[in-house]
Amino acid sequence: MNFNKLNTLLGWGVCLIACTVYLSTMEATASLWDCGEFIAAAWKLQIPHPPGAPLFLLIGRLFTMWLPPSQVSLGMNILSALASGFTILFLFWTITHFARKLLLPKGMLPDGERTIAILGAGVVGALAYTFSDSFWFSAVEGEVYALSSLFTAVVFWAILKWEEQADQPFADRWLVLIAFIMGLSIGVHLLNLLTIPAIVMVYYFRRYKPTVKGGIMAFLVGCAITGIIQTGLIQYPAKIASVLEVWLVNSFHLPFNSGVVLFIVLISVVLWAGFRWANRKRYYHVRLALYCTTFLLIGYSTYITTLIRSNANPGLDMYNVDNPMALKGYLGREQYGDFPLVYGQTFTAKPVDYEKIQPMYVREGDHYALAGHQYKAVYDHKDMMLFPRVWDSDTQQGHANAYRQWLGLAEGQAPTFADNLRYFFTYQLNFMYLRYFFWNFAGKQNDIQGNGNVRDSNWISGIPFIDNLLYGDQSTMPDSLLHNKAHNTLFFLPFILGILGLLYHYRGHRGDSLVVGLLFFFTGVAIVLYINQPGAQPRERDYAYVGSFYAFAIWIGLGTLAVYQWMKKRSKLAYTPVVATVLCMLAVPVLMASQEWDDHDRSNKVIARDAAKSFLESCAPNAILFTLGDNETYPLWYAQEVEGVRPDVRIIHSGLLAAEWYINQQRQRINQSAPVPLTLSASQYNSDQRNYVLYHDAGIFPQDKAYNLREVIQFVGTDDPRMQLTTTRGDQVNFLPSKQLFVPVDKQQVMQQDVVSVADKDRIVSPVTFQLKKDGLLKNELALLDIIASNDWKRPIYVTTPAIVQGLGLDNYLQSEGLTFRLVPAAIPAAADGQRAEIPIYTEKTYKAVMQKFAFGNADKKGIYFDEPNRVMLQRLRDTCTRLAIDLAEKGDKAKAKEVLDTMDRHISEANFPYAMTSQGNFHNIAGMQTAYAYYLAGDTEKAKDISDKIIKDCTQQIRYIQSLPADKLSGDLQADYDRAAQFIIPQLQKMKETFATANQVELHKLN
Question: Which end of the chain has the lower number of beta carbons within 10 A, N or C?
Fold first, then answer.
């Protein structure tokens, strides 16, 4: 059999292995983060968050339309698994292409020995990437990154096919195909565009005699093409169409979306005229460029489906992209704001002014109305610097504090340019890229999301003297981290083989090594430079750099050739390529698979879906449920939109209420949920004047009395200049006249609605009075209060976490029901020490939810791995059961309390989710203390003591590890964990054990 057939067959064989691995380890249902949203959007062809992924959704629909709702998530996960498997196929062929060029003169077929060496390189490199941490993670869930990786692999392979056939007639069809695939890939993810500089260099090396000057020019052309496509062909069509849209609709009274039609006609005419001119002049390269542009736009045209589907008003309609203006903002990710790259402010800078940058239009009746303007902050030049890396002043997400932590700056201290560079190298480049790189090719410490300390989520090798030098004595680490399934040691072997491959590639073919190097750089370090990440990220971001890891996997494959050549020089044996391949296979892919299988196998994991069901089933009929963050919201959308769980509940993402389109969508019926009443009109929310409403004592509203919340909202919404403030710039702005507010209560109506238990009816108050804890309201907070005021206690209102209403002062009126917290007109009573007591529990409802409706994510099945975000969900379930058991025991029903705890313990296996485990802030062990306390109260002293002993053991091991650290490795958060363990957790548990050991009937207050 000749080489080409073997290359084809073995490539498909490796592809089959990868597909089998991913299909057998893919998540059993929707995963956390964006997966629930994407699955729901694909199932009903809805609109996910900007910038969307229309082609991904269309393909996802094909993979799910033949499945029942309960299996839809499997269809999306299968799509990712197969896309990832086929990525491995094209990686294999890419490696063998480069390997063949290294070992053979052009056009020569390899003999048997070199055939084995070339194919062996392909197998080792492809399987190394198959089992790499970050790629495997994305391969087994319904997200865009797997399909995006496939497009990246295909276009890079396609340019190599063009390189092989460049001298043949019609070879440039490969270039047109690449342009078309890139256009399609925009409808999945933009990562594909970063291959353009490498593709241009392949073209340059094949068509021209390489020179230093020519190489630099080719590189700059590649960067320019990338920028033109990113800005000119992705952003500007929507911008031009939006200008035409307003002109045609407002001036000529044409139908909505006429601007899109006219733009398509105009661009078609321009391309047609360009083709005629290029053909007449016989400008071949101009015609080729026009072909590429045309097919790129054809591929990109999948975004038209976003406009079509948004006009159908689906349940999930992010950004309400029903017109070209909205599409412009959607593609430009305008809701996420802008960030500086070349020149910009520092995070301590204060704006000195705001300049209008563009008008904002909204659909109103049969025309577009001006709703305000977008503004850009203007800063003093002394607060600006080149290459701004520390730029984000946001405090709500902790970005400003993260800058200070990483740079050691005091409060109010401005960063210097040296600080700016230090942050780039230590955080953005090292922590947010190199750490992830070494996760994949050296090893991983554990799965606790890191914030820079030496204990959590660093890369690790498994070589003691290196690891101990970097992170302290690893042998003293707590058992819960040493035995963490994400603790993977690869001993640098994949990294070493990749470096050997890089050096071998450079020596053997500098041009090709530069091409792969550019792919490596642009899909890795260039992303770091472009996204300019602030600190305190909500999740690990390694999935963004898989293109870079793909490039390094090419060098891992070529490293096998380096080993083969080294062995060949020292041995005349005929089976040298076999030995080299087997040796590299065992040292890299087999080692990676053996280390990482247990923390990538999600085949029985259903925690995201089950937690979402438990949240929804905790709500009363026709409820409004406010959520916070992606991991609370997206699984709920999936459960409701796909599996049809509780379609009567209105899910409202409290953060998205900052967007007027999302506020206005609440006025519509969604599934079986009636429209949500609001006091302010759509036009009042469309205005940019109420993005932030500042509290101001105008001297006409007595501050010692409370005001009706609904009337205050009406006041905030007025356009009467007599009820507004005049700024120094002469603008009229609304203001908040008081922080003392109340919501009227019809006690008779509330008592008939089973809002609180019979025992708590004496706590019902009228009205509900509260005080804002901040000096102003953001638009989302204003809208949330509007919904509460307008609802008038007619529909049950819940929050997933008290933090949603805490800053608004309403956290004193919450009641725990299942996993959720209900807003009730009953104040939380004061504790004996004068402090506010814990949030009360509606015992009967919570007991029914826990015992009859809760699902626990298969946590009782042996061997399931739950990473940190999964553990957060499991902890919510366990905390609810614990609080309920304490409540039952304190009310004298120890039998039911023990029943609840035993149900929890049976469904959440301690082997899968220990009661004692090291975590940031020691919150896991503190939660475990409460569970031990609940068991003590329920009368199961033996179980309580067992949990207590395990927590004490883990804390003791933490203390031992932290004490062993040298001063330069002891960070503030580790010191805080030490203090909590030594001064709070261990003493409290020992006191608890002693108390219950000496008196079984003692009265104990809950632990604070």
Answer: N
Does the predicted TM-score (pTM) go above 0.70? Answer: yes
Query: Which DSSP state fits 247?
Result: I
Q: For residue 239, give the nearest of 334, 364, 319 by alpha carbon.
A: 334
pLDDT tier, 999 (very low <50, low <70, confident <90, very high otherwise): low
DSSP string, 414-427: PP-HHHHHHHIIII
Cis preceding linkage at 744, omega within 30? no
Spatial separation of the C-alpha atoms in residues 287 and 297, rounded to whole Å: 15
894: buried, middle or exposed (CB in 10 Å: 19+, 13-18, 0-12)?
middle
Task: Report the C-alpha gap between 324 and 643 in whole angstroms.
Answer: 32
3-class SS of residue 673: strand
Q: Which two tokens stand for residue 694?
A: 């500042």
Omega of the bond prior to 840 within 30 degrees of 0, cis?
no
Measured between alpha carbons, how far is 618 from 846 in angstroms, rounded to an integer?
A: 8
Per-residue pLDDT, 835: 64
Beta bridge partners of 375: 356
Question: Which helix H or strand E contains 742, and what residues bound it?
Answer: strand 740-743
* pLDDT tens per residue across span 712-746: 999 998 888 888 888 777 778 888 999 999 999 98
Six token digits for residue 17: 């292995």
Q: How many Å apart are CA 651 and CA 40, to the nearest integer?
A: 14
> Is the pLDDT reported for residue 1001 higher than 90?
no
Q: Between these two residues, 762 and 638, which has the higher pLDDT value?
A: 638
As given in the structure block, the two tokens for residue 820 are: 């959720």
Is the Cα dihedral 173, 174, 179, 185 positive or negative? positive
CA distances from 886 to 350, 540, 987, 993 (A): 49, 35, 21, 17
Q: For 854, left (φ over 0), alpha (ψ -120 to 50), or beta?
A: beta
HEC string of 814-850 equals EEEECCEEEECCECCCECCCCCECCCCECHHHHHHHH
CA-to-CA distance for 818 and 839, rounded, in angstroms? 12
Confidence of residue 1006 (pLDDT cuts 50, 70, 90): very low
Beta-bridge mates of residue 735: 694
Q: Express each pLDDT in 524-554 by its tens digit.
A: 999 999 999 998 888 999 999 999 999 999 9
Closest listed residue to residue 337, CA positions, set 50, 693, 690: 50
Q: What is the mean pLDDT of residues 255-280?
A: 92
Terminal Cα-to-Cα distance of the chain (whole angstroms):
74
In this prediction, residues 100-109 reach a mean pLDDT of 82
Q: 963: closest CA among 951, 979, 987, 984?
A: 979
Looking up tokens 């430009």, which residue turns up?
Answer: 332
Element housing 364 (H / E): strand 353-364
Per DSSP bridges, beta strands 814-817 and 820-823 are antiparallel
Tokens encoding 510: 């500098």
Q: Which two tokens stand for residue 578?
A: 């076999």
- Backbone φ and ψ of 377, nearest 5°: -70, 140
Q: Which residue has the tokens 């029942």?
A: 68
> What distance in Å separates the CA atoms of residue 434 and residue 118, rounded to the nearest whole number?
29
Give 450-479 pLDDT, tens digit per residue.
889 999 999 999 999 999 999 999 999 999
Q: Which two tokens mark 312? A: 């159908």
* All residues at 6 or more sequence positions from 518 whose CB lies less than 8 Å from its CB, including other chains: 197, 198, 201, 219, 222
Q: Are 86 and 126 in contact (CB under 8 A)?
A: no
**Count of helices and strands (H, E) across the chain:** 42, 19
DSSP string, 969-1007: G--HHHHHHHHIIIIIIHHHHHHHHHHHHH-TT---PPP
Q: What is the mean pLDDT of residues 598-608?
A: 95
Q: Cβ(50)–Cβ(336) under 8 Å?
A: yes
Among 150, 204, 164, smallest CA distance to 18 is for: 150
DSSP letter, residue 316: -
